[in-house]
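forwarding from the other thread:

> can someone predict this with pyridoxal-5'-phosphate?

sure thing
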Amino acid sequence: MQIPFVDLQAQYQSLKDELDTAVLTVMRQCNFILGKEVSDFEQAFADYVGARHCVGVASGLDALKLALEAFGIGPGDEVIVPAHTFIASALAVSAVGARPVLVEVDEASFNLDPARIEAAITPRTKAIMPVHLYGQPADMAPILDIARQHNLRVIEDASQAHGARYRGQRVGTFGDAGCFSFYPGKNLGAYGDAGGLVTNDAGLAEKVRFLRNYGQEVKYKHVVKGYNLRLDTLQAAVLGVKLRHLDTWNARRAAHAAAYTHALEGVGDLQLPRVVTGDHVFHLYVIRTQRRDALQTHLNQRGIATVIHYPVPMHLQAAYADLGYGRGAFPITERLSDEILSLPMYAELTAEQQDYVIQAVKDFFA
Ligand SMILES: *Cc1c(COP(=O)(O)O)cnc(C)c1O
């Protein structure tokens, strides 16, 4: 048996008619740039997360960059980012000329550790960027308290947590802005690059709308120096169809996670993901073991694809040598990079496929 890490084919087959119709409609109308599908999806996604505004942009990285830029964050400023995340969170800060200040994560949740934030705040700090990593909400209550006390913006990176809830409320709606990636493999994914920003701040939404579209208020009236970072109409059409299935898919992911956890509890030295801060939407099911590399090889030999998210911490990447953090700066993050492994996880994973993965993991530790 071959088990892929994600199966976008299976998802397409399950929605083929709806998706084909949506995409062909855009092609027949030839309304490719900021077509009706874009504003329809923005409205639907804003309603879904419970935010007043959504602005569709070209990628998750662009959503983060535009939020930072719209808040006037730039050279000389610092933004607090978890040490353990996909590098795009920090790259957005670098892209506007500010400095990402990394903060160690909490070992149980893999997310930004609120108890370590204050020590990293300086007079240059302008914002905190919690990341809802792997689909689990960051612990927003203490983060928002700290932000309020120090007058900092909160920009959520919700790229892995579409639909996740913290204390009953969807992530992306706690901070000043919530940024989402719709990269194809995300819980809500387009058929190419796409992203979105949600906010209750009308001024921010307007500013990001200008910035994504050459700084135009209306055609050929440029009020700020902008970019071309619009959400593509074809992608919006795909996202509009898929959004209607997101809750069903997230529920299936949670059921798969529960099945993995039930079957693998107590096996070898495995540490299984813990749901500690709210409704986890399991973008990834990430396990830990001291024998990670050997387990990955074993699973690969059985035809099971796994991925390490992420094998080299940001502070040890060549791209971030300039930040001056050495090995040992973030021991938890470094340990995670050596021990974590993401098992196959997607809504369409069948019970038979999952049993095969579980058995292969058990065989390794037997
Ligand atoms: C995917 C991802 C991004 C970047 O999204 P793109 O759409 O690929 O630009 C940012 N942050 C996190 C945590 C992500 O997982």
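The longest strand covers residues 53-57. thats all i got for now
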